[in-house]
């Protein structure tokens, strides 16, 4: 089944900015909201499709990958496969619905809050990006307090139900076919109040810790690309789900090669004799050294292509090329013997200047 374009789902241009994307999503979420369309499976499907499109396009990293590779580039990433249920949408975008409908989630839903997403900038070497690499990382984050099990209350005690909202975290009143809710002024939306605070987490229910994560960078990863690890972010409150962890890769420059998409470039210096007569020289590749032939009459800036010696495409696995750019070096100092030989050579060419074609000159 061919998936619909995310921009078409939200009805926006590919050049839309972040504000436009959010505005379009809010409008469609309101239109297809399950409370407005009870028992309407088509509206629910559109509601989830809009959420999927918004999740990808509202994130600069995933949007860049989608713009370049389409749905295929997002295969295996969390969010790209869609939302399994309406509850998943509310869990991910509760802040938007709080803005839109005056509530944190749908009426009667749990009061657990999703944990924060985390970003980790990972520097890797050029050749690690070319061939792929696994890294063991320690990520600083907040986890549920082991002493109070995330409740924030001292051991042996329990948070008390808020008498104002009856534990809902919201006070509600009806208006048309909506149940309009607002945050409870007594418990500030928690639904409970803590009398005896846990001394370890000081009532927060979470503490700072380190999480070990194995990151598998695939071959061909480029600078600025990211990996998303669902549920590896910070712990939620009151049993809410963990946020996600984003690993943003920063590829260090290489001393030898430069990368352009899946091709790599290297500049090789040759002398005037090699350029005029041709030669066989050794050049570096990603796998080691390789001999190449320089044809007689080589010019400064000529390019020799080593097929499939570049970077593997992160999606297809097909490798790019290695481009060898020739740099003909003119000697600035000559020995007496070299000077004499060049003088003899000059005499064979004569004194007439060879005029190059104007069209070719400007083209170059």
Summed up:
With 364 residues, the protein is an alpha+beta fold. The chain is 26% helix and 26% strand. Among the domains are: 1-101, DnaJ domain (Helix Hairpins); 258-348, Urease metallochaperone UreE, N-terminal domain (HSP40/DNAj peptide-binding domain, Sandwich), CATH 2.60.260.20.
List the SSEs and their pairings.
Layout lengths: L5 H5 L7 H15 L8 H17 L2 H10 L16 H7 L1 H8 L16 E7 L1 H6 L1 E12 L15 E2 L8 E6 L2 E6 L8 E2 L12 E12 L8 E4 L15 E7 L6 E3 L2 E9 H6 L1 E7 L2 E7 L8 E4 L15 E8 L6 H14 L8 H6 L1
Parallel strand pairs: 1-9, 11-15
Antiparallel strand pairs: 2-7, 3-6, 4-5, 8-9, 10-11, 12-13, 14-15
Helix pairs in contact: 2-3
Write up this protein.
With about 375 residues, the protein is α+β, with helices and mostly antiparallel strands. Among the domains are: about 1-100, DnaJ domain (Helix Hairpins, Orthogonal Bundle); about 260-350, HSP40/DNAj peptide-binding domain (Sandwich), CATH 2.60.260. The protein contains ten helices and 15 strands. It has a four-stranded mixed β-sheet. It has a three-stranded mixed β-sheet with strand order 1-9-8. Strand 12 and strand 13 form a beta hairpin. The longest helix has 17 residues, at about 40-55. The chain is elongated and about 105 Å long. It starts with 5 loop residues before the first helix and ends with a helix. Mean pLDDT is about 80; it is low at about 100-110 and about 360-364.
